[in-house]
Amino acid sequence: MTLFDVYPRWQIVPVKAEGCKIYDKEGNEYLDFYGGHAVISIGHSHPKYVAKITEQLNMIGFYSNSVAIPLQEEYAAKLGKASGYPDYSLFLVNSGAEANENALKLASFYNNRKKVLAFHGSFHGRTALAIRVTDIPRYRAPINDCPEVDFFRLNDIPGVKKALRTGEYSSVIVEGILGIGGIVIPQPEFLQELSKICNETDTVLILDEIQSGYGRSGKFFAHQYADIKPDIISIAKGMGNGFPISGILIAPKFKAVHGQLGTTFGGNYLACAAAIAVIETMEEEKLIENAARTGAYLMSELKKLPRIKEVRGLGLMIGIELNEPIKPLRDKLLFEEKVFTGATGTHVFRLLPPLCITKETADEFLIRFNKILQS
Ligand SMILES: Cc1ncc(COP(=O)(O)O)c(C=O)c1O
Question: Given Cys at both, which of 103, 226, 270, 295 links 316, Cβ 3.0 to 4.6 Å?
């Protein structure tokens, strides 16, 4: 059997990783400023993380959600405290798209509406049809019958207000920082107005913090810079430092109904063990503070380099826009300077390093990045 070839891949075979470094099978060492797409939070192969998952696997690795799994409650309590949402409840699933599916669905169950308002440049995942082909009506929220979505310009306060005042929208979904959209931060006043109009019209505000959340922005959630409280927050990526786990944080106004949401693998023992190790390590090693500090340092130093049109972002979610297509430079950075980076569109480098990078690692990156810009 061959693999279904949907990914353009670099011909590099990583065999080992530690902290912010990756090693390939030829023994080359790379700096990881991509984090496997914003997934690596506490660093590769963190000893506490490895120990916790190994220990759990030696006890019990899986059983379904038909039994009590105290690790889920332990994790929820830790997450509530660390994120500033102790009064919210948690539903655990496995991927970012699945978290958003459940957020949109819960919103629709809540207000019995179907329409969703989303934004140009957004990315929220790739699923949608499974429930449409499932013949169990009570599992289907109104939105699943025929999803209707209208796209608006980000920060368009008058347009969004006018639309939401119709009372037709079930939810609004917006990223804390638009990732694929080019590292674009929604204006704080926009998020505040959005939160207000959602409350007034009983529309559910969903913040997709899958990429921008979990400390990456220098606060637990990027939307906390705007001082708002969304109704539902979706999380994934950094949550498990590579172990697949995701979830939604749900405001107290939502009532849980048995059977409305469900999953086989969500919240399994190993995923919870991984997530607990991550959240404890983030606190013990003060990684959110590190993301804020090292991210601000990187951004200020990047602004001094040549060929750069704009540097934007928060914490360790940084976009570097050039006046030219970045592909040749990104390849050079990877193959000659041995640095992994992300990209968005044709002109923007996307930096998403592990949250544990030190100033020394940041300086090393700046030297190598400057070298390719000077070439
Ligand atoms: C903001 C955002 N939402 C949702 C997703 C989808 O997550 P997944 O690929 O785990 O389904 C991503 C993935 O990149 C993302 O960045």
Answer: 295
pTM of the model: 0.97
Neighbour count for residue 131 (Cβ, 10 Å): 16
Fold of 48-284: Aspartate Aminotransferase; domain 2 (3.40.640)
Indicate if ligand 1 lies below 6 Å from the C-beta of 124: yes
Instruction: Give, for all 375 residues of the chain, the pLDDT tens digit.
Output: 999 999 999 999 999 999 999 999 999 999 999 999 999 999 999 999 999 999 999 999 999 999 999 999 999 999 999 999 999 999 999 999 999 999 999 999 999 999 999 999 999 999 887 787 778 888 889 988 877 999 999 999 999 999 999 999 999 999 999 999 999 999 999 999 999 999 999 999 999 999 999 999 999 999 999 999 999 999 999 999 999 999 999 999 999 999 999 999 999 999 999 999 999 999 999 999 999 999 999 999 999 999 999 999 999 999 999 999 999 999 999 999 999 999 999 999 999 999 999 999 999 999 999 999 999
Atom of ligand 1 nearest to the CA of 246: 10
Query: CA–CA separation, 178 vs 26, rounded Å?
Result: 36
Domain coordinates in residue numbering, the chain: 14-33+286-374, 48-284
Measured CA angle at 249 (ends 247, 251), to 5 deg: 155
